[in-house]
Design goal:
single chain; alpha+beta; conserved putative lor/sdh protein from methanococcus maripaludis s2 fold; Elongation Factor Tu (Ef-tu), domain 3; six-stranded antiparallel beta barrel; four-stranded antiparallel beta sheet; 29% helix; rod-shaped
Length: 405
């Protein structure tokens, strides 16, 4: 009996020992690695990270909008009378002077009308002269009473009638001559001929919506655009301080200021509409380019950047350093050898740089590349990036990382 009791106690002791050792190993493991995660986020292993210093400087205030180039001065050549195009005196792209002949329409019917009106005017003028001569002869006979007052009055009436007939004939001749002049289309300004839309032999309609051609004067170009009503207060404030300049970029599809989208020209804001378009919610503006480069043409789409001045003394970080979470924006800043999550508020972004507000100090290194294993509090070794790295595309970021461990 005692032997059985002793054997049972021995078996129970062995089972208890095995159970204790089985539970002790996971506990120790959890205490070691789990403690390291709590203290260092990804263990005691130090991560090498790329950083850029926080800058304290003036930050430009701009408005970027799409625009379209128009010639500052251009004229559409439209016929004022209908007729068959007889001659084309210019070619597309040709430079002309003011007064140069461009097109002529068939004017033979008008020549016949002019001859007819000249003949009518000649007869009316002769009748007018004869009526005037008769009044002149009867005038000295009227006062002594050698002729009746009715005879003299009839002579004066005939003179007025002849004078009116002659005036009508002159007006008809002048109208015919004007119509003939309208068949001779001349350049109203000096410039370069655009596309010619008709060919000799074609019937040209008066005041057609399609011009025969367009003359574009050399020199200045205008860039037309629209500013959204929410941006209008900034533009109005800048105009109140003085003239507003604008940079014009070729529309390559990339943001203005990138390496493949440099400034093409700089102009001055010369026109702002007096009201906001209710249909678009924007106000129309115009920027004048007085010395445009040859790479800009009328009708070309461009990007316009209105320069509204600088905001002094703001914290600036690369856009790659800005992280997003449900709680808001934040950055990882290196402090005492660890990556610390610091909430910030993004004020505005420009050319890969972001102006922010928050508890950051000028010169503090912020991470511009976030490793997958990084957690807030991780030990890191800073590798300062070259100046300007902030303009690179965003690196891979963890899905909605929390700014706190």
């Amino acid at each position: 009996m005692k032997l059985r009791i002793i054997l049972a106690l021995v078996v129970l002791a062995l089972i208890a020992g095995v159970a204790y050792r089985t539970q002790e190993k996971p506990a120790n493991t959890e205490g070691g690695s789990g403690g390291r995660r709590m203290n260092g986020g990804s263990g005691d292993k130090m991560l090498t990270v790329r950083t850029a210093p926080v800058a304290l400087r003036d930050f430009p205030r701009v408005i970027d909008v799409p625009g379209t180039i128009d010639a500052a001065r251009q004229v559409a050549i439209v016929a004022q009378t209908s007729g068959v195009l007889q001659q084309q005196r210019v070619q597309e792209g040709q430079t002309v002077r003011a007064g140069d002949m461009l097109f002529t329409l068939d004017a033979q019917p008008l020549r016949a009308q002019i001859d007819q009106h000249r003949a009518a005017l000649s007869g009316a003028a002769a009748a007018e002269r004869e009526a005037a001569r008769l009044v002149e002869q009867l005038t000295p006979l009227n006062a002594p009473g050698y002729i009746s007052h009715k005879e003299f009055a009839d002579a004066q009436l005939a003179q007025e009638s002849a004078r009116a007939t002659a005036s009508g004939a002159r007006a008809a001749l002048h109208a015919a001559q004007l119509a003939w002049d309208q068949t001779q289309l001349r350049a109203p300004i000096a410039g370069r001929i655009g596309r010619v839309n008709v060919q000799p032999g074609s019937l040209v309609q008066a005041n057609s919506a399609t011009p025969l051609t367009t003359i574009i004067a050399p020199g200045a170009l205008d860039v037309r655009a629209s500013v959204a009503q929410q941006d209008w207060p900034q533009l109005a404030e800048a105009r109140a301080r003085g003239k507003v300049l604008a940079d014009i970029f070729a529309d390559t599809g990339n943001a203005p200021g990138t390496s493949d989208n440099t400034v093409s020209a700089r102009g001055e804001l010369v026109f702002v509409d007096s009201q906001i378009d209710a249909a678009t919610g924007a106000v129309a503006i115009k920027v004048r380019l007085n010395a445009p480069p040859p790479t800009l043409l009328s009708g070309q789409g461009v990007r316009m950047r209105l320069l509204l001045g600088d905001e002094a003394g703001v914290l600036v970080i690369p856009d790659a350093a800005l992280q997003q979470a449900q709680a808001g924006s934040y950055v990882y800043v290196v402090r005492a050898g660890r990556a610390v999550s610091q909430p910030v508020t993004a004020l505005r972004e420009l050319d890969g740089q972001v102006a922010v507000s928050g508890k950051l100090a000028a010169g503090e290194p912020v991470l511009i590349e976030v490793p997958q294993r990084l957690k807030a509090g991780s030990r890191v070794k800073s590798e300062t990036a070259a100046r300007g790295n902030g303009a690179r595309p965003h690196p891979h970021k963890p899905d909605s990382p929390s700014p706190h461990p």
